[in-house]
Amino acid sequence: MSKEAYIVATGRTAGGRRNGKLKDWHPADLGGAVLDALVDRSGIDPKVIEDVIMGCISQAGEQSMQVGRSAVMASVLPDSVPAVTIDRQCGSSQQAVQFAAQAIMSGTQDIVIAAGVESMTRVPMGVATWLPAKEGIGEGPWSQKIKDRYGVEEFSQFTGAQMMATKYGFSREDLDAFALESHRRAAAATQSGAFDAEVVPLTLADGTRHIHDEGIRYDASMESLGGVKLLQEGGVITAASASQICDGASGVMIASARAVKDHGLTPLARIHSFSVTAGDPVIMLEEPIPATAHALKRAGMAIGDIDLFEVNEAFAPVPLAWLQVTGADPAKLNVNGGAIALGHPLGASGTKLMTTLVHALRARGKRYGLQTMCEGGGIANVTIVEAL
């Protein structure tokens, strides 16, 4: 049995805005481009890859019929490489990492790719629930029994974000200030070349290369963010303090110690610890807070032992509340910006954040990184890695 799982290659596409530079890319091709990059960056013979675990939320239209397998078919990987597509909502590809690590650490497999893809332009968010409703088929994803149990007609992440802002006392200005810092950090990272090694370049129809995240507002200010309309009267959240709709793909290759030796691979990081928890499905976005406490306890670590954090910026109240409760140093959080500036390609965000975290740790000579994100249904994954 192998007890070590190593990340030996990483990659992510630069984010594309809705109807932006990646609008003409089929999601299978986006995923395939990342798989190709992982093979190229690791230098491995693609025939020895034993599985691809692909996160994707909107499994309809061009992302239906098992998009993980479609991505393999669109890549340099041979037909002998299997794939599976999983949905743990926004944590789908983070869960892919954890499933891959479990396979490696159990000794079941030696080389697995964890990846994710989401084209939010070509497969709009919620399409899988809109179509049946439009055709008058069924009751939707929540039965009357579920609605009666929780006293709600629907489960909304936007409602959960508003609930968190109220519970933790955040003002509109607090959220805008956090959003502004996300844009500033993302802009600085882009201009300094911090993302260059992690981004998988894509050639567009006009022959140009897509290498920079489209959503960053380089001229953002409190004044410009303050002019964005509230999403709900009496609320505090705007589109500017929420994650951006985004097209993209990402992935990491995970290998056992035996595979590292046999194939001459270079470990970038080691999977140190991981866990997943669940809580209230109504407020739902709060779960990264208890999930982090649970993960640190299991790992025998304290918040101060972690050098960098990636907490997905689904809505600004989520990382702000996480900071407030955990007492983590804000300077260590999302050091290169987050989803408010860079975009949140749903099923691809887990391995996107992991790619950025590994590169940020290594660039700074730091050791431990912790990644977590809120997920629909009140679930949260936490993954702790050690940079090598």
TrEMBL record:
Q: Enzyme group, top EC level?
A: transferase
User: Locate the Thiolase C-terminal domain: which residues?
Assistant: 265-386
Q: Which Pfam families match?
A: Thiolase_C, Thiolase_N
Q: Where is the active site?
A: 90, 344, 374
Q: Which of UniProt's keywords are assigned here?
A: Acyltransferase, Transferase
- SUPFAM superfamilies, per this entry? Thiolase-like
What region holds the Thiolase N-terminal domain? 6-257
**PROSITE patterns named among the record's database cross-references:** THIOLASE_2
Acyltransferase recorded as keyword: yes
According to the UniProt entry, the coiled-coil residues are: none
Q: List the protein's name.
A: Acetyl-CoA C-acyltransferase
